[in-house]
Write the structure tokens for this entry.
Amino acid sequence: MLGVADYASSVTIPAVSQSLIGQTVDAGEYCITERIGVGGMGAVYKAEQPSMNRLVAIKVLHSKFANRDDLVSRFRREARAMSQLSHPNTARVYKFGQLEDGAAYFVMDYMEGKNLAHVVREHGPMEVDRALNIMIQVCGALDEAHRAGIIHRDLKPENIFLTTQGGTSDFPKVLDFGLAKVSEKQMGRGSMMLTQEGMVFGTPEFMSPEQSMGEQLDRRSDIYSLGLILYELLTGKLPFDATKPIDIMRAHVYDKAIPLDERVSGKSFAPALVETIAKSLEKKKEDRYDTALDFAAALKGCLSGGIANTAARRAMPSQPAPQKAEAKPEARTQPAKTRADPSGTIQSQPGPPQVPVSNGPKVALGIGAAILLLLLGIWLGSLMAG
């Protein structure tokens, strides 16, 4: 079932009023049945939608923030951003509105499951293939958002929810676009810019170096955050030993990330996976994967059965397809042997000298015929002489 902060902000506050339970929203379209999450800015409720015969989740901004234009705009922007995304791994938003007390709300997918933070806390680090398959799907959701001009800016395990969809388990849903940076074309009327260069927003543990310094962000900031999430899924830890928020942000900017295969004693990972995560965590965004799909492609190559093949393709020089040699009856060739030199490059090594074994019987037959003809000539000559 849902945890306290699965939908809402991870910063918890005392429980908000239960007064909405049993009430209807949007002229009776939705009937609220229970509260399933609470956070610093609002709460999330489970509701029934009889007209569609389905369950939904309703995220409500606390009414005490109704006069905070900046927070209401952020809330509306989250709803707007998510409503324009249709990727199956992004939680869908159906409607945005206001309650009678002025509190803003939006209606979204209802899901049962747990977020990635809960999964790792309860069960420890994930198996490699499981973690990779989850993050590959998340990359697909982020790629759609990036193409629409939306940067999430608050990716963390709490904002990736694992559920079951269409009979498929471990189906991730990306949540909480409340800190999303949107392009001007995504801004609706009444929206306001909530951040500006030099201001820092987000969760310190999963911020990119440029986000920690309050710089302008693009999609590669989200890719850094994805790399951090995957790192934690595999090790149960972050790639820095810092614990205080300010020290963590400083580590993102200045400290070298602890390599994946050195983070947990006695636990090793394939070199290709170590390199892939290291690239996603480069300090300079120009050195990271350029798009979420590029990152996903690299992760696919690290799946079981894919790592060895990828390494082999890197080591194998590009060569034209071998041509089938025309067979010759008078000679039989032996195939060349191959070996790997110390650098790992596959080289061709000639086989042993060839011996024309198929000519022997023909040569012997020719010599025998010549001797026979010679003896026959001598015999005929002697007869004529007699």
About this structure: The first strand starts at residue 24 and ends at 25. Residues 1-5, 8-16, 183-199, 307-367 have pLDDT under 50 and may be disordered. The first helix runs from residue 69 to 83.
